[in-house]
């Protein structure tokens, strides 16, 4: 691969590249279509699978086919009026409610963290390094994932050298690229220390016991306490989180890695966060993305602790200050 090809390949996310390749292969091999395709061919392809796949899957395959034609210098057959009409018809005849992750309840987060704290204390008492590492890693994972509202792939790509934490003050994460950063300009995420369920202290405890100086923050851990060099795969987070919550006495099967992000968004909205403040903090670029994650029902109303706080709209500069005020309001009087 020459230098130009390397840079061109780096401009597309690995997951996107794999899914597009699979979509084109499905069109050509599984269905037996011909490339370059015509608009009529795309219509027949959609008709074949309209009652078998979700509309989101069909649209992803259209995006892959469109990308193939554009990069090969052919007209894009997915933009014809017939194809657009076909998508409308599929929506009308096969309506489907979008599946969303169940938001993690603050009560369940607290229950899991209390259990992990007990596990860590017992492991330290019997000098069981493997169990101590696992409980410290898992605690940092769920607390950072929730309070920072990270996606699963963002959690899996956090690097120690790109993270600065100061106990009792706050933590800063830098991600060179993420789903919301299409231009790969890099994004910095900040979270203050909390009086309870603190992600900063959880991170410090994990790094200290693991002795990690660089590389992925979250890694696989074998039964003997040996840490892997590579980071956790994003796809492994769902079974890992479900094991954590199930062992803590919570119905873990309800939750996925996205439940952390959606749980924080729901909690923040129920506790008075302005929608634009929430968008800035979590990293959403448009209102539609934010509203998909927020339950209109006050899911956390009975769990809110302390006095209510209604923030004003803010910019990036004072997002952290707002977060600190809200945290103080929520945990006021808590030990």
In CATH's first tier, which class of the largest domain applies? Mainly Alpha
- Provide the CATH architecture of the largest domain: Orthogonal Bundle
Beta-strand share of residues:
5-15%
Order of helices and strands: HHHHHHHHEEEHEEHHHHH
The structural domain count equals 2
Provide the spatial order of strands within the biggest beta sheet. 1-2-3
- Main β-sheet description: 3 strands, antiparallel
**Secondary-structure-derived class:** mainly alpha
Q: What is the helical fraction, as a range of percent?
A: 40-55%
Q: How many beta strands in the DSSP annotation?
A: 5
Total helical segments: 14
Query: What's the rounded overall pLDDT mean?
Result: 83
CATH superfamily of the largest domain: Intergrase catalytic core
Give an account of the 3D structure:
With 335 residues, this protein is mainly α. It folds into 2 domains: 3-93, DNA polymerase, domain 1 (Orthogonal Bundle), CATH 1.10.150.130; 106-330, Orthogonal Bundle (hpI Integrase, Chain A). Helix content is 52%, strand content 7%. Strand 1 and strand 2 form a beta hairpin.
């Amino acid at each position: 691969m020459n230098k130009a090809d390397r840079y061109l390949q780096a401009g597309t996310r690995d997951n996107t590249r794999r899914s597009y390749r699979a979509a084109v292969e499905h069109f050509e091999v599984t269905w037996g279509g011909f490339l370059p395709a015509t608009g009529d061919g795309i219509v027949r392809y959609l008709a074949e699978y309209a009652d078998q796949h979700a509309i989101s899957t069909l649209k992803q395959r259209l995006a892959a086919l469109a990308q193939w034609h554009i990069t090969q210098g052919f007209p894009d057959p997915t933009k014809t009026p017939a194809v657009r009409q076909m998508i409308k018809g599929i929506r009308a005849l096969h309506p489907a409610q979008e599946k969303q992750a169940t938001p993690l309840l603050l009560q369940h987060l607290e229950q899991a963290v209390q259990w992990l704290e007990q596990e860590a204390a017992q492991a330290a008492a019997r000098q069981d390094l493997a169990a101590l590492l696992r409980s410290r890693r898992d605690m940092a994972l769920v607390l950072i994932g929730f309070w920072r509202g990270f996606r699963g792939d963002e959690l899996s790509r956090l690097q120690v050298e790109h993270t600065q934490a100061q106990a009792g003050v706050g933590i800063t994460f830098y991600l060179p690229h993420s789903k919301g950063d299409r231009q790969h300009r890099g994004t910095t995420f900040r979270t203050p220390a909390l009086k309870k369920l603190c992600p900063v202290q959880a991170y410090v405890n994990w790094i200290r016991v693991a002795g990690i100086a660089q590389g992925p923050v979250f890694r696989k851990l074998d039964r003997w306490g040996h840490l892997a060099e590579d980071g956790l795969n994003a796809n492994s987070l769902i079974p890992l989180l479900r094991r954590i919550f199930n062992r803590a006495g919570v119905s873990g099967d309800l939750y996925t890695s996205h439940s952390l992000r959606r749980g924080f968004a729901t909690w923040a909205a129920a506790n008075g966060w302005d929608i634009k403040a929430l968008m800035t903090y979590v990293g959403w670029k448009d209102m539609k993305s934010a509203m998909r994650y927020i339950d209109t029902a006050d899911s956390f109303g009975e769990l809110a602790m302390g006095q209510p706080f209604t923030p004003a709209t803010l910019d990036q500069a004072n997002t952290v200050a707002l977060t600190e005020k809200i945290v103080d309001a929520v945990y006021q009087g808590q030990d």
